[in-house]
């Protein structure tokens, strides 16, 4: 997928657990795991804003666009 999710990076920088982040953002740990592992099809702006507020970061610190490799584009 061309959108990469870097929540793990910010969690490590903030020395915060997934459970603590989920609790502070107000989502279930399971839903956070889906987002964190790049399996989410969408993210609500309210959730993204809450993640940024808790992690004290910008949306671009959590999400980035990557080009697809030629092998993936051909398949």
Automatic annotation (TrEMBL):
It comes from the Bacteria. Residues 13-62 form the HTH cro/C1-type domain. Pfam families: HTH_26. PANTHER family: DNA-BINDING PROTEIN, DNA-BINDING PROTEIN-RELATED. This is Helix-turn-helix transcriptional regulator. It comes from Streptomyces zaomyceticus. The lineage of its organism: Bacteria, Bacillati, Actinomycetota, Actinomycetes, Kitasatosporales.
